[in-house]
Design goal:
alpha+beta, 5-stranded parallel β-sheet, 28 helices
Length: 903
């Protein structure tokens, strides 16, 4: 009997905890009995059992159970690796027993502070992996001490029960397995030692001490980080000099060496105090040589750098002395020591400064700089600070700027790049102490302050749209964060954000919703759609459309208002009537994991319903990039679009690609005009209560370890019971049924088995309606061709003779290969024919071209024809004279009428 632990089960367990995993090569027995790596290198491999099997390594790490099962079915004995850092929410300290890492770790714990009890794994030879909650620790060998490595962003560790090349298996320490022990916070001394060099805080100077700063012997920045920092300047002269230095060109023109050289070297030192003299001189060398100046050679540059180093050290000492002097004076209160502790927000009234600057209150409150004459030069008449920082879901760094305006504090959160650009002047309109004359000095102050206080600024979570955070631990509804606390930055209209605020009575809201839900299966599934959108991301499904169409007064808008009210005020969240492409894409991008509601599509411009189906069906955006990158960086969405109107959505030409992910029904969901009116009126007063409660239930019951797989299995089982036209449609019908079950259980408080039975019954009836609608729209190319010919026959005069009114098309002089006539049908005409005939233009024309019954240009299903001297595109169809004659004799085809086309 094989006693080897199940590696696949372990990987699935870790994934259920939100830890991203991937397979690594494992050690195997060679013919000689030695353990060697299973990779092609075999005994020559120096990383046996520790390097990835997948092509992209740690970048392939996932929590997708299906993907994990596929990996371990392919490689049953593969070692399990866990990606560390923000992706899994963990950092790991790796103590190697052979390098005395374990002994050193315990010695450091005795000296600097005990290690908390946390998840711990035993590695080979008595080594250990100590797991902590993610705190920005870097992946670096020997980061804490020789033999003690750390793993953070971009790193990974081999996890139990993987096999080590020594023949031992990784195991969890007794009582310290993930199932037995929660992750603890890493001690401060570990976090401080394993932070990126550029983020380590400068030491706080005691009062009345002299700064003895010396240029570092070793760089605290990589060269890439150094260049990035040097380019972050709003001074054109410095920016140009940096680019010339990068290119190795002449640093300054003839006659301008002296003052410019001192100013530029000062910029280098003050901008990058972590850079060593050797590095700065090496970067300057080629450009200084290109100047070919006897008075400003390499020796002179080294001397200037020494002077600048002394000036930088003096500026630090001056700040400390100024702090002491202001404290002794009693009135003004220095702020250089008032930086908040890591993770804490600044207290009211405390303001931070930077080396060479001071902020104080008392008789005068403002930002000042210590000049070379030991005087204070006023920068701004009121204090201004960067108080916190964070990144959004796209990796854009934001900072919050706080200032004093009169007796009130104000703040603005903006991308960090704005702090160094002219856009900073925009804050002047909100009372910030910025003018066109001091904006450059305020920018320099804020940049110096942010750099100096980077490690002590609070890190906040930032969201720029409604929906789930990447780790599924938070959900944003407008300005409200459900789950873990975080900051919200929501671009968009205030009206949209205000509409997401709950109003009225939660009990009355529930009563109104239930009155609509229980009217019909279509109404029930529409109600469930209000809860379904957040499940798309949890279940790994793509976007979908729900289309309900039918005659006016049937209750479609009331049902949609009920769905909208789950999250907020219906009139503030629905898009009704005419809508542009950019507006539609903006709604999809802004709503994200909320549904997108589009009502009264019969009022939209020609072709927009086609675009709606296409955008949601393909999840692609044709929008141009915005300045903030909102649409450019988000080319796909996970959205549930609820569309209603008096016309079907998928009968517009070209929407075939969206059909599998569209559930469309023709229905009168309420059939009660009075109920519809009362519903509209009531939901404007009572709304927004069910959505947050539903999200909290999802977080509590399903996003935790192991439960998400159960939810996915429930969805899979429901999909097997859905009878729809395609398997993909069944998955989306099952999504609505699952949302119905969860909403009945967690929002309405119904018993789960009864809720499941009721939801399944409604879902199956709804699936039958979807199937009926889908089959009615699947017109064959032969039937469509017959319909087209009938239309041409009825409107023959509009095609065959010159007429003064706008005509639907024209008979061409060109003949087909077998001598038959060809009729050109203009775009708008064909769209009307397709709508009346209930067929898809692109699909039908493609088949007709294959059968020789239509002509096309290369790459186009249309051809250019000449109409009154103009070249326009039209669908060119070969005439069937017999059918034309029959149609002219029998009268109009079903729904056929003369429609206008291009002139």
């Amino acid at each position: 009997m094989d006693s080897t632990p199940s590696l696949e089960s372990a990987a699935l367990e870790y994934a259920g905890r939100g830890w991203h995993v991937f397979p690594c090569y494992e050690p195997v027995r060679s013919p000689s009995g030695a353990l060697i790596c299973a990779c092609p290198k075999g005994e020559r491999c120096g990383h046996a059992g520790k390097h990835p099997r997948t092509s992209n390594g740690v970048k392939d790490a996932t929590t997708d159970a299906a993907r994990i099962r596929e990996w371990w079915q392919q490689w049953p004995t593969a070692n399990v690796a866990i990606a560390t850092g923000a992706i899994s929410g963990i950092n790991v300290v790796d103590a190697d027993a052979k390098a005395d890492g374990v002994t050193t770790l315990f010695r450091l714990a005795d000296e600097r502070g005990d290690l908390p009890e946390t998840v711990t794994a035993r590695t080979s030879g008595g080594g250990c992996h100590v797991y902590f909650r993610h705190a920005g620790i870097v992946s670096k060998a020997g980061s804490i001490a020789p033999g003690i490595d750390t793993r953070g962003n971009g790193g990974y560790v081999i996890a139990p029960p993987s096999l080590h090349r020594t023949g031992e298996r990784y195991t969890w320490e007794q009582g310290l397995a993930p199932s037995e022990m929660p992750l603890a916070e890493a001690p401060e001394w570990i976090r401080a030692a394993a932070q990126p060099k550029g983020s380590r805080p400068a030491p706080v100077l005691p009062v009345n001490t002299v700064n003895v700063w010396q240029p570092p012997e070793h760089d605290g920045l990589t060269e890439a980080q150094l260049w990035k920092r040097l380019r972050q300047t709003s001074a054109p002269e410095h920016a140009a000099a940096v680019e010339r230095m990068l290119a190795g060109g002449e640093l300054f023109p003839k006659g301008h060496h002296d003052d410019n050289l001192w100013a530029f070297i000062s910029y280098l030192r003050f901008k990058c105090p972590e850079a060593s003299d050797a590095t700065l001189l090496r970067l300057l060398g080629p450009s200084v040589g290109a100047m070919a100046c006897d008075e400003h050679d390499a020796r002179h540059v080294a001397g200037v750098l020494q002077r600048v180093n002394a000036e930088y050290a003096a500026s630090l000492a001056g700040s400390a002395q100024l702090t002491a002097a202001l404290r002794v004076a009693g009135g003004p209160r220095p702020s250089i020591e008032s930086s908040p502790a890591p993770g804490e927000h600044p207290e009211a009234g405390l303001w931070m400064a930077a080396p060479g600057y001071a902020i104080h209150d008392g008789q005068v409150l403002g930002v000042f700089k210590l000049t070379d004459k030991a005087n204070l030069a006023t920068i701004a008449a009121a204090p201004i600070n960067i108080t916190e920082t964070g990144e959004d879901e796209h990796g854009t760094c934001y900072v919050t700027v706080r200032w004093l305006h009169g007796d009130r504090e104000r703040s603005e959160t903006m991308p960090r790049a704005k702090v160094s650009g002219n856009d900073l002047l925009e804050l002047a309109g909100r009372g910030a102490p910025i003018t066109s004359s001091n904006s450059k000095r305020v920018q320099d102050f804020l940049q110096a302050q942010e750099q100096h206080c980077h490690a002590s600024l609070p890190r906040v979570r930032i969201f720029t749209q409604s929906g789930w955070a990447n780790d599924l631990r938070s959900f944003v509804v407008g300005r409200q964060v459900l789950g873990e606390p975080g900051r919200v930055i929501m671009p968009g209209e205030t009206a949209f954000l205000d509409a997401l605020v709950p109003h009225g009575s939660a009990d009355e809201h529930l009563r109104l919703m239930l009155a609509v839900r229980d009217k019909s299966p279509v109404a029930e599934m529409a109600w469930a759609a209000g809860f379904a959108a957040p499940l798309l991301r949890l279940l790994g499904l793509r976007s979908m459309c729900l289309s309900v169409w039918g005659p006016s007064g049937a209750g479609k808008s009331a049902v949609q208002a009920t769905t909208t009210s789950v999250w907020g005020r219906p009139s503030g969240l629905k898009v009704s009537g005419d809508v542009s492409s950019a507006a539609l894409q903006g709604e999809l991008a802004r709503h994200r994991d909320l549904p997108t509601w589009i009502d009264d599509t019969q009022l939209t411009r020609e072709g927009m319903t086609h675009l709606m189906a296409y955008i949601v069906g393909t999840e692609t955006s044709g929008a141009r990039a915005t300045q903030t990158g909102e649409l450019r960086t988000r080319k796909t969405w996970r959205s549930l679009a609820f569309i209603s109107g008096e016309k079907p959505l998928l009968q517009v030409g070209g929407a075939a690609g969206a059909k599998n992910r569209t559930l469309e029904v023709c229905a009168q969901p309420l059939g009660d005009v009075s109920l519809a009116t009362l519903t509209h009126q009531g939901l404007e007063k009572h709304h927004g209560h069910a959505g947050p409660a539903f999200i909290r239930a999802l977080m509590e019951h399903y996003t935790g370890a192991g439960r998400l797989d159960e939810l996915r299995e429930q969805h899979r089982q429901l999909a097997l019971k859905m009878a729809t036209e395609t398997t993909e449609q069944a998955r989306y019908a099952a999504l609505l049924v699952l949302a119905d079950v969860l909403a009945r259980t967690h929002v309405c408080g119904e018993e789960e088995s009864r809720a499941r039975a009721a939801a399944l019954e409604a879902g199956q009836a709804f699936g039958s309606a979807v199937t009926k609608e889908s089959r009615e729209t699947q017109t064959t190319a032969a039937a469509a061709y017959d319909f087209i010919m009938g239309f041409v026959a009825v409107n023959w005069s509009g095609f065959s003779q010159p007429v003064t009114f706008k005509r639907p098309g024209m008979v061409l002089e060109e003949k087909s290969s077998d001598g038959r006539s060809i009729v050109a049908i203009f775009h708008t005409t064909m769209q009307e024919i397709a709508r009346e005939g209930r067929f898809d233009t692109r699909q039908v024309m493609t088949e007709l071209v294959t059968e020789g019954l239509a002509l096309k240009d290369e790459g186009h299903l249309t051809r250019k024809v000449s109409v009154e001297g103009k070249r326009v595109r039209a669908y060119c169809v070969v005439l069937d004279d017999a059918r034309i004659d029959t149609g002219r004799t029998q009268g109009p085809a079903r729904g056929a009428r003369l429609v206008g086309g291009e002139p």
